[in-house]
Amino acid sequence: MSDFKEDYLLSRLEYGVLFPYIMKDDVKQIYWNGRNLTIESDQGKEFAKERLSESFLERFSLLICNRCVKKFNPENSIFEYENKTLYIQMIHESVAGAGTTLLIRKKERPSRPDAKSLVESGFCDESAIGLLKDIIHEEVSFLIYGYNGADKLMRFMTRYIPPESRMLSVEGGSKLEIQALNPDKDVTELTIDPENAGISLQKICRGIDPKWILSCNSDGRVIRGIVEAMEERDACGGLSIKRSDEDEMIESMFPWESFGKLSAIKLALYRAFPIRISVDKSGISRIVHHDRQKKELLYERSLA
Q: I want to staple 48 with a disulfide (CB 3.0 to 4.6 A). Which of 16, 37, 178, 278 is the partner?
């Protein structure tokens, strides 16, 4: 039960009738809409026979708020809590027509593929795997872009960063979970305020002196801060950005900049991240090395 309490905040008795659903591996989401309890699992969505009484909801919300040190009342009518295992949301009865609502969503445990599964699934071939390993071993900064598989590929590449190389993971819209995936390695995870990203990252990096700075953050202010920290500390970098092409990627990261400045930013990113890895729904489509004004195609997926 110790692992349960750590991950799920409350004890078996405190979860009451919800406890069996919390502990079922195939249950992904539990939702009480004020009248009905809906369970979403691998088998689909179904109504449960249990009903949550007002007294249960009042006690449950009090326990959760005490654990999280948060308020839940008519003035603070929407409660949210998130950790690596759960996302919990409650909407107060003062604004929810049918009464207090409760949503508990279980988050998937972080996982990453190995080389064999990437090849067998057709995500890439053995030659691409060799290139990815070389990129890490030779300490060349890289940028992965694409809506499908970018974060997965980033997680895979951290396999080959040696234990003695300290990693700093700057979390963004999605979570890389590099620390959980590399328990035997020196990893620090943080979420940064975009407004002060440059100053904050430089101060942090002066202290912990990372060899690799990794991020899935697509906010241009954070990216700029990462590049500045990389230059100051002579660190390697890896970015995972959910965009379909480089122009869309840069325009979305720096929407306030003029076209002329975007061109300069693009060149600066080429210098900072000379390896570009493009992924799509089928896997890695190409790997390109940008060396000043020259581009070298290192890998391109076969159409055969």
A: 37
Q: What is the amino acid identity at position 176?
A: L
pTM: 0.68
Chain segment 194-221, per-residue pLDDT in tens: 888 888 898 999 999 999 999 987 688 8
Residues β-bridged to residue 46: 39
DSSP characters over 45-74: EEEES----HHHHHHHHHHHHHHHT---BT
Task: Look at 270 and 72; give whichever has higher pLDDT.
Answer: 72
CATH 3.40.50.300 fits 115-300, yes or no: yes
Helix ranges (H only) for the chain are 2-8, 12-15, 19-23, 54-68, 115-120, 126-137, 150-157, 178-181, 197-208, 220-233, 246-253, 259-272
Tens-place pLDDT, residues 136-158: 999 999 999 887 788 889 999 99
Angle between helical axes of 220-233 and 197-208 (0-180°, round to 10): 30
By CB atoms closer than 10 A (0-12, 13-18, 19+), residue 162 is exposed
Q: Which residue has the tokens 């954070």?
A: 222
- Backbone phi and psi for residue 45, each to the nearest 5 degrees, phi listed first: -115, 135
